[in-house]
Amino acid sequence: MTKFLRTLQYQLKMAFVALWCSVVTLVFYLMSFPYNKRKWLAWAYAQGLNVGVRFVLGINTNVIGRQNMIEGPAVIIMNHQSNFDPLLQGPVYPKNAAIIGKKELKKIPLWGRLFFASNNIMVDRYGKGKTSSAVDLSIERLQADNCYIWIFPEGTRSQGGKMNRFKQGAFRMAIGAQVPIIPMVSKPLHEVLDVPNKIAIGGQHEIKILPPIYTTGMTDKDLDRLLERCQEIYREEISGYLGCDKSRVFKDEKPAQ
Question: pTM value?
Answer without folding.
Answer: 0.89
